[in-house]
Amino acid sequence: MNFSSLPRRSYPCHECPFRRDVPAKFTVQRFAALRSTSEQPDPPLPRDFLQQPMFACHLGSPGSGEDLACAGWLATSAENNLAVRHSLSTGRLPFESLRPGSGWPPLFGSYEEMALLHSAGPDGAPLLNTDPGAFRSLFENFTSSAFRLETRTAYGVPEEDEPFHTWLSGEDPGTAWLQDWLDLMTAQTGNGRTVRRVRVVDHPPSDYLRFEISVTPHNLAAGEVIRYLPRQRSDELQLPGSEFWIFDRRLLVFLAFGTDDQFLGFASTDDPAAVSRHERIQQHAWSEALPYEQYVSEQLTDLTPYDTAAGG
Asked: Which CB contacts under 8 angstroms, 24+ apart, belong to 292-297?
């Protein structure tokens, strides 16, 4: 087999739009035009399915030996491309190319996430919704269900800074800083709506995740249902490192964070295909994750109790 037959980048270039660590550059219109590279054609292509285009590295030269398939695209968004599937089945492309390599920079988890969070406006700024009121309205106005996938080791939330440092010192931070959220969740779940989360966690967890675990009983008392998924198992399932909410099984909301873990804003889509793909991720994560009580009793027996100073 000749794995080099399909011209491709073996590593994301320094401007790859699938990298989380590079500035937004391309427009919404450009990403929309390229979306067909990551979806099964509808209607189907003619019999020559090799006609389906691939997402090429923009640093290459079309029609030349440098017309290369994008490494970030292959690793995150190419599994439904029929030409890619054919290249896999004929040995022209190694299966390993559909996963990020060791030592790679962080990548977006899907084409949808990349296109929504990495699109730039006319002034070059990311097209993120940064309105706190608009974000809160998502939780006030959903009518049946909300689901969250959490994959980070820390979240920079200004309201949590003081209670987090209080907890790190071994003292009780109380719940006043969280009460507004708890009251909202109590009201929503009391009206029959469901709020579920899967939190991907390292072993041992980071200090922030330990702090989050210590607060979880308050979330549970407010009606949320929270499960924990060891990161090793998440990696085995090849779950993306995306942060998203799904509301009412029809609205997909991606969350954007900076390199300092600060929340930057969000972007949403109601595209049925995108929602469906991320619901499948939700189902995989939920079925494998452990309920809070089971996670604490089985996975954290070797760690210091959470209501004492962090760090073990």
From this structure: 292/216, 292/217, 292/220, 292/226, 292/227, 292/228, 295/201, 295/227, 295/228, 296/213
Same domain as 270, residue 186: yes
Shared-domain flag, residues 167 and 271: yes
Query: Which of 60, 86, 117 marks a domain boundary?
Result: 117
Computed on alpha carbons and rounded to an integer, the radius of gyration of the chain in Å comes to 21
Q: Is there a domain that residue 3 lies in?
A: no
Residues 82 and 192 in one domain: no
**CA–CA separation, 308 vs 312, rounded Å?**
9
Q: Which of 16, 24, 255, 22 is nearest to 120 (CA)?
A: 24
Q: For 167, list phi and psi in degrees, rounded to 5.
A: -65, -40
List, in sequence order, every residue forming a beta bridge with 75; answer none if it has no partner: none
Q: For the chain, what is the mean pLDDT?
A: 88
Which of 70, 91, 117 finishes a domain?
A: 117
Q: Report which of residues 127 and 181 the model is more confident about.
A: 181
pLDDT of residue 306: 42
- Model pTM score: 0.86
